[in-house]
Amino acid sequence: MTSKLLVHPHAPDKDGFIHHITPTSAGWFHVGFSVLKLAPQKVVSRPTEGDEVCLVILSGRVRISAGDVDFGLLGERESVFDGLPWSVYVPAKSNWTVEAETAAEVAVCSSPAEGKLPARVIPPSEVGEEVRGKGTNTRHVRNILPDTAVAESLLVVEVVTPGGNWSSYPPHKHDVNDPPRETYLEETYYHRLKRGSGFALQRVYTDDRSLDETMAIGDGDVVLVPRGYHPVGAPHGFDLFYLNVMAGPVREWRFTMSPDHAFLTW
Asked: Could you mention a single GO BP entry for this protein (predicted)?
């Protein structure tokens, strides 16, 4: 049986989209997520309407403009495993254009906003890096739009998990809006495997098991996390990257640990 939480990429459409997930298609209210796979010289433009957008250059070099501002050529990674990203924040009630200089992949992360902030570049020098966990729970976090950065609702982060390690672990959840204890945040995971083959595993489950799904993830898959715990396992030999997008009514990342795993170090 096919999981409604697991979304596979499709061939690029006429504009280059291989994923186009909206709040309506996901069955929730806040997070939108798309991925563009662009050939050189391909140009794509979109209005932001009632959403703020974070364009994350996953690979390649692209020229990005937002509103009336041309930010020029950005991007330097050959793949998502090659260092820190360049990104561009675009406010609501604006528009953006991406023109590929090389073959490129760009993530389009969105959530509702009012358009209070200016467009800006988020260079690699502003992306906070941290190592989280220890032992086989070690992973490398790249904070693009954490809750300490300026945005109206979006939270965006990259994580690289070495093969053989666990990530988003110990299991935690953020599906109850009770700040500061816990905040309600919808979340997408865009997965990439360094070898481009093989698989990783992700489980999404609640305490009462009314939701309990374990998915084999392929390169390029998206997992939707509407609620519950959502740990990820990367098999030995297959380093795993994922791009997380979160949003909800309160722009804070506050989570609750699984009681069964509370003795473990985050």
From this structure: inositol catabolic process
| Alpha-carbon separation of residue 174 from 58, 84, 116, 246 (angstroms) | 26, 26, 26, 10
Q: Which residues, other chains included, contact 93 with Cβ-Cβ below 8 Å and sequence gap of 6+?
A: 48, 49, 50, 114, 115
| CB 254 within 8 Å of CB 182 | yes
d(CA 204, CA 215): 8
Q: How far apart are CA 146 and CA 140, in angstroms?
A: 15
CB atoms within 10 A of CB 96: 22
HSE-up (13 A, CA, CB side) for residue 127: 22
Answer yes or no: CATH 1.10.3290.10 is held by domain 6-261. Answer: no
Question: What are the C-alpha distances in Å from 172 to residues 191, 255, 259, 262?
Answer: 19, 6, 9, 9
Can you give the pTM of this predicted structure? Answer: 0.97
Q: Give, in order, the Cα–Cα distances in Å from 147 to each of 49, 102, 253.
A: 23, 32, 7
Order across the sheet with 87-90: list the strands: 17-21, 32-38, 104-112, 51-59, 87-90, 120-122
Residues in the chain: 266
Q: How many helices (H) and strands (E) does the chain have?
A: 1, 23
Two tokens, residue 86 = 């360049």
- Tell me the per-residue pLDDT of 141-196, one tens digit each, with 9 for 90 and over: 999 999 999 999 999 999 999 999 999 999 999 999 999 999 999 999 999 999 88
